[in-house]
Amino acid sequence: MLRALRHDIWATEKLLAHCRTLTKDQLELSVPGTYGSIRKTLQHLVRGDERYLVRLGVDMGEVLPVETDVSLDEIGKHLARVQTETEQLFAASRFDPDGIVYDTLRANPKDPPLEMEAWTMLVQFTHHGSDHRAHIGTILGANGLDAPGLDVWAYGNETGAIREKR
Question: Is the pTM value of this prediction over 0.85?
Fold first, then answer.
């Protein structure tokens, strides 16, 4: 599970680095069927990561806001914290994938908490990231802009997990 989360965070870091090469106007591009603008989607994605970790009992401090637009630098600072806290979650051996967590961060605060096995939160973490990175890839492609390779193959090649047998 940790390796899947490492890929997820790596892919978001790569996408964020790529987005730093875009103009301010390009960061505000969107296409129908996606979450929103490129910048807003990155903000939402990293905010989601933070909130998944909060649900797992990690104190993330102040998470990215919903309504206020933030800079790519601010998104990057929060993503760095997500990476650190994700590593610590597993290093401290405090994560039990079959343990029960309670999701109190409901869309309607009056709804009762959801009780779930912890692994479901981390699978959602990676799914959510892939989904929204694909949205940004769609926006880039629809506007004739290049998108970075973010799949597991690219990650494996970059980290040495995939190599030619010699």
Answer: yes
